[in-house]
Design goal:
By secondary structure, the chain is mostly helical. The chain has helices spanning 2-86, 98-139, 145-172. Helix 1 packs parallel to helix 3 (145-172) and helix 2 packs antiparallel against helix 3 (145-172).
């Protein structure tokens, strides 16, 4: 009995260690990929900064000539926007119909339920596998009690290992909350 408990604990610890190791290796590759993305983004930003500098020099001359004509137009536009802002609005005026905005809310809910639903599904599937495997061992004729017990312990160890590997890896890769 004590040996079985030790074996079961080793299966859980082994599965947890495998899950954590898999999560760590995956995180290392994500870190390296992110470093390459940052380097590429820095090169792109340096080029964009140079282009903005050249474009702003050209636009400055044009804007100085248009500034006086634009002042009256801006005052009128600001007054119109102020009046529009004072209106009571429940939906943003981005042209999207209400049913699309509602549909986007439904998509958000479904996306939020994927991880918990899959977790429950895996837990139920593992439980069903365990029950079915134990029933299969019990239904075989001609097996002694010691063989049945050994088979049941091996099934428990395997399922415990697989389950802890899945759950540690799954929850080890949860996206971090942005502060």
């Amino acid at each position: 009995m004590i040996e079985w408990i030790g074996d079961a604990l080793m299966a859980v610890v082994g599965g947890g260690a495998t899950g954590i190791l898999g999560s760590a290796v995956q995180s290392l590759f994500q870190y390296k990929t992110r470093a390459l993305d940052i380097e590429q983004e820095n090169v792109r930003l340096a080029h964009d900064a140079k282009m903005v500098e050249l474009e702003s020099t050209a636009n400055l001359r044009i804007l100085q000539q248009e500034a006086s004509a634009q002042a009256d137009s801006n005052a009128y536009a600001m007054q119109t926007v102020s009046y529009e802002h004072d209106k009571r609005q429940y939906m943003p005026e981005n042209g999207a119909p209400t049913w699309i905005i509602g549909l986007l809310g439904v998509v958000d809910v479904i996306r939020g339920l994927v991880r918990p639903s899959l977790t429950v599904y895996v837990a139920v599937a593992i439980t069903i596998i365990l029950v079915e495997a134990n029933a299969l061992v019990e239904s075989v004729d001609g097996l002694g009690e010691d063989v049945r017990l050994a088979a049941a312990m091996e099934i428990w160890r395997m399922v415990a290992y697989i389950a802890t590997t899945i759950f540690f890896w799954w929850f080890g890769q949860r996206p971090q909350k942005r502060a």
